[in-house]
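Hey, I'm writing a tutorial for new members on how sequence and structure tokens pair up, and I'd like a real worked example in the thread rather than a made-up one. If someone can provide the structure for the chain below, I'll link this post from the tutorial.
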Amino acid sequence: MRDPVNGLAEIGMASGGEIVRLDLGLFRPYLISHPDHVQHVMKGNWSNYRREGMFWKPLERLLGNSILGDGPGWESSRKILQPLFTARYVTALSEDLADTINEGFEALRPHEKSGEPIDTAAEMGRVVNKAVIKVLFGSRISDTDADRVAPAYSTAATSFAFRMLFPSAPYSIRVPGDRRFLDSIKTIDEVMFPVIEQARRERSEGKDIVSALCQSRDEKGAEIGTQQMRDDLVSIYGAASETTGMALTWLWPVLAENPEVEAKLREEIDRVVGRGPVRPAHLPDLTYTKMVLQELLRLYPSGWMLPRMVAETEELGGVRLKAGSQVLISPYATHRLAEFWERPLVFDPERFSPENQERRHRWAYFPFNGGPHVCLGQHLFYIEAPLMVAALMSRYRPVLVNPGTFKPLPAPSVRPGRTVEMALLPLGQA
């Protein structure tokens, strides 16, 4: 309970990837970490493992019946939204992304002059938030409302840790975090519902996700309901912003512990981007930057615990999983299995060099889930995140001011348990 994220990974590592039943008192879920078993649950027989049950309930309160669930609207919503997240479509948005990201990091110049540290999670989140809202929502969400959504979503995503750790706690009883969670949901809804209502009135044929949902029809030819649209918009916003924001929060403590990686990363950015603003044309040459980000997602995947409920009894890995049982898939654990990763706790971007890519089990690495539920935002991440790293490091020399151990917080995404504070020194300053 003191460190559930690492605790779950340690159980997976100690078992060598075998299926383990966790003894949590009245609640006894199964831990799934071996790549063969992960492949079966997430792809081979994925329909037998539903996004339902006690562990999924807290997420449902935030995301509703959305594209991230298994409810009746999931398949139709995915068909509608998938074209907006293809590699080609996201690449077409990259110039706007770069403009927003450059502008966002240029706004940190006062911190360079004053020496005042930044709250890294807050500032990474601010830049990601503006970029995601601009390219996915167009001009439908004002800057004022954008500044309300980001902290509200962050608060909502971090305030139900108690319910994730104690999933049997009844919702009729208030537990720590409930009030903050409900207040955050209220703020999110106050932004999203007016956006949906205005888009319905305008009947716009724009290419933003709100217009796409307004134009779409379900299997019966009916319009998508307002609540369904809200759930999908919140889910897409979270998927597009959380992975990037949290990865770029973990990056700086990791670089502080691995100065040789930081030096090589800085050399590439200096050579490719120089002191000018980063542009999408730089991305093909930021190869080491991408390797660093891939390794970062290995050690700190966004979703540390992916719960499922068994629909029909079956045997997996010699273990009989009864209908109604809960299984927990943990990328955080799988990505640390010594059977599939040499020196698994060492940060080594060279694992993702082109010559090493083909050596691993396909399902030993799945930071964006997999199978029918693979994250739509993965193409966006590999454009957005390198642009952000290059935009920051081509302007400043970031230095961690509160080094030490950063334990992961048991929220839906893997977050540092304490604030990551960073000073932005002028380039060339030691």
